[in-house]
Amino acid sequence: MDENRWHIDDLDLDAYLRRVGVEAQSPSQAALGELHTAHVRTFPFENVDVILRQHPGVELSAVTTKFIDHQRGGYCFEHSTLFAAALERLGYDVERHLGRVGELGVNGRTHMVVVVALDGRRYLCDPGFGMSLLRPIPLEDGAEDDQDGWRYRVRRSDTSAAGATWQLQRHRDDEWQLMHTTDELPVHPVDLVMGHHFTSAHPRSHFTRELTVARHGLGRHTTFSPAGLTVRVPGQATERHPVEAADVPGLLRDHGIELPDDQVQRLVEMWPAMVAAAEPD
């Protein structure tokens, strides 16, 4: 099999490390955790290009240009493509996997994660979820981690005909809630293209209907969408505030997204329709 199929040499590793503010280090659990946290706190989760119907694709060269040169963010296929390439260039043993968000029998394999084998253990890296892990968690049944006040857990299931599947859960409202389920099937570049195509173009994909932007800060996670601005702080009640069209330019900047004026204006003009579509019947 062509080991260059992921084109990891397209990544300017030095530029990536400068962008996230981390120095190159030999593979270790500590270095992996530091890089994961830096990535998540540097690059926002966002689907601006999907909403504007101008997405450049999820090949590494396109992602590198968007994230590093244009100082943007993206969603799971982009985050994990970039993160996996950086890890491989740094000498880590990397696997790419796809998963399903929510109910297994309903939703397609439209989420991407990275699994790292290190010192005899496997670690789940998930830098591209709206409420992303801050650092890797062992890919082991029952593994739990309190990540700066947010609690996560991994559960294994062998009920799938494809073999083991792994649930990532987040503790919320006094219960464990499912985030996504990842399988062990091999993944090829075309699988990411297909998953991205559904997510960015199919009318059933919510990413095609409403803007979603999220970012991890220090002890604070924020998300804004047509449903409003959500502010989460560990140990405190979740805050929710309405978002008007006039708020959109400032919120984009607050979340680290700088866009040309004409693109910001298009989002502002689209906002009332997205709010109406997000309102329950």
From TrEMBL:
Signal peptide: none annotated. Pfam families: Acetyltransf_2 (PF00797). GO terms for molecular function: acetyltransferase activity. Gene3D superfamilies: Arylamine N-acetyltransferase, Cysteine proteinases. InterPro entries: Arylamine_N-AcTrfase (IPR001447), Papain-like_cys_pep_sf (IPR038765). Belongs to the arylamine N-acetyltransferase family. PANTHER family: ARYLAMINE N-ACETYLTRANSFERASE 4-RELATED (PTHR11786:SF0), N-HYDROXYARYLAMINE O-ACETYLTRANSFERASE (PTHR11786). This is Arylamine N-acetyltransferase. It comes from Luteipulveratus halotolerans.
